[in-house]
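ingest -> validate -> predict -> emit
validate: passed (alphabet ok, no gaps, 160 aa)
predict: started
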Amino acid sequence: MFSKKVHETLKKIDSVEGDPIELERIALSTLSDFQKYSKLTKVRFIFRYANNEYNRDRGRAGNISATRTATTNLSIVPISKHPRSRNSDTSTVRFYDFNRAGWRSFRRDNIVILTEVFSVEKNRWTTDLDEFDKISSMSPAEYAAYITRIAALNPDNANS
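emit:
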C-alpha cells in the first residue's frame, strides 16, 4: 500500500511542480500523515530536500532524502534525549531520528511521505494502517495501556 502511495505521490509532485497551490495541498496531506502516526509510534519516511541555497550548495536540492526512522512520541525517545525546550520555530517540525540518535527537523513546506509505520501489536514494520485508525477511537484507559506498551519498546525509559 505505502509503496504504491509513495510512487503515486512522487508522480503527483513531479506533475504539479509548477503549481504552488497543488504542491501545498500535497505537502499538507503528507505532513498530517506524518504528524498523526509519529505521535503514536515510530515511522519511516522520506522527504524532498527544499530548493534553497544550503541544499543547492550540497547538490541535493529537490532530491529525495534517505529513509528516516523517527517519532514525535516522547515515551519512545530515550529520557536522556528528551528536548530541553519546545521548538519555537513554527516553520519546522521537530522529530527524534533513531538513525542519528538525535533531534532533527524539516520545514513544514517540505514534501514528507510515510513509507512504513511500526506496529506495537505485531512488533514489526507495516504498511497496514487499520490498527492505527482504531487508536483514535480508544477509551482513555485503552490508550494509556497502548502508550505503556510503546514505552516498553524503549529500555532506557524502563530504568527510570
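The radius of gyration is 17 Å.
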